[in-house]
Amino acid sequence: MAFRLVTLNLNGIRSAANKGFLEWAAQSNADCMGVQEVKAQHEDVAGRFDTVAGMPGHFHYAEKKGYSGVGLYTRHAPSDVQVGLGNPEFDAEGRWVELRFDKPGRKLSIISCYFPSGSSGEDRQQAKFRFLEIMAPHLARLKKTREFILVGDVNIAHQEADLKNWKSNQKNSGFLPEERGWMSTLLGAAKGHGGLVDVYRRLHPDTTDACYTWWSNRGQAYAKNVGWRLDYHLATPALAEQAQAAAIYKDQKFSDHAPLTIDYGFSL
User: Fold this and answer.
1) In this structure, are residues 22 and 52 in contact, taking their beta carbons and an 8 Å threshold?
2) 153 carries an active-site annotation
3) Which of 111, 135, 189, 213 is 20 to 30 Å apart from 147, CA to CA?
4) pLDDT in tens, 15-28
């Protein structure tokens, strides 16, 4: 009984493939792999990247070429596939693919999601806030009817331990008080809070330098490990309790993000 789930922001599937992503994926023994920032359209993926490591993929592409896009590869056939959030602004950007693995007595979803980045300017930061505003109730509705694990690039470092230079980033997108507050509410157990679990932190509550999954391409950020933890597994409590081990793979660099793998004690 084991389920291995990977998340990785590819920063372009073609670019990642040129850097060894496909070979690594074949060795990863994943049951499911959520990818973000595919930065490709159907015609780029078909016949080339629609199956990775023997796992067929399901995708939500952005309308804009070379932008955003998410995918979810799976070794197990889903009972249903949900593409998009039902929100025109963000569905045009390719940010949500959900695979359902329902059977009698169980409703379970695995989701690959890419939260907007607000770092390019105020208009994108406002879009990010709009996304957070729809995402919290969307996840709350989902949680009422099913168990799920959402994997993806959330573009928020939740706590001071989640980035190297937290003091100098308090006014920067990804570590704004409003974003961190949103995460705290999502992960809060009190009435009116989201009640979800940050699975990596459940397994590793105290790591700092070892927890980063993204490094800026500026300066020597990667070499000096000046990183941020932006990639998450967010799970309903019953699934989070079954998490057994987490690993961030840094031996090769396919992207400006590193893959985060978590093993769970259940099977699909």
Assistant:
1) yes
2) yes
3) 213
4) 999 999 999 999 99
Q: Catalytic residue among 50, 102, 153, 162, which?
A: 153
Q: Which residue has the tokens 């168990």?
A: 147
User: At how many degrees (to 10) do helices 177-187 and 122-145 cross?
Assistant: 0
Measured in degrees and rounded to the nearest 5, phi and psi for residue 151 equal -115, 150
Model confidence pTM above 0.85:
yes
Tokens of 222: 């990667």
Q: Which two tokens stand for residue 91?
A: 């569905």
Q: In terms of residues, how long is the chain? A: 268
